[in-house]
Amino acid sequence: MLKTAGQQIVRVQEHLRGGEGAVTFHEFLGKEDSYGSGRLFSRSTLPAGASIGAHVHEGEFEVYYVLSGEAEIDDNGTPIRLKAGDTHLCPSGQSHALKNPGPEDLELIMLILFENPAHQ
């Protein structure tokens, strides 16, 4: 199966989880394409100063892989910084928040998979 760039769903969400600015998602796969194993696989862009507010993942985990720019993560209250090539994992039951502190766009891959797909 081929899904061209033109077939990808592009959506913009303002103030995601109470964050600042807008996040643009270019969805490679959504929940309906994931055979019950997850709900998001996307290339996402946060412009300078944009953020995703703190939130908890229950029954699922989220992975960020930074393509370009810098990310500031609140990992259960612990601040960490990521740069291109770095990965962050937020396991089920944990919380995180994301901010682009830099002057350039933050581009990252976001993946959300269910903790136990057989039970979804």
From TrEMBL:
<keyword id="KW-0479">Metal-binding</keyword>
<dbReference type="InterPro" id="IPR014710">
    <property type="entry name" value="RmlC-like_jellyroll"/>
</dbReference>
<dbReference type="Pfam" id="PF07883">
    <property type="entry name" value="Cupin_2"/>
</dbReference>
<dbReference type="GO" id="GO:0046872">
    <property type="term" value="F:metal ion binding"/>
</dbReference>
<dbReference type="InterPro" id="IPR011051">
    <property type="entry name" value="RmlC_Cupin_sf"/>
</dbReference>
<feature type="domain" description="Cupin type-2">
    <location>
        <begin position="44"/>
        <end position="111"/>
    </location>
</feature>
<dbReference type="InterPro" id="IPR051610">
    <property type="entry name" value="GPI/OXD"/>
</dbReference>
<protein>
    <submittedName>
        <fullName>Oxalate-binding protein</fullName>
    </submittedName>
</protein>
<dbReference type="InterPro" id="IPR013096">
    <property type="entry name" value="Cupin_2"/>
</dbReference>
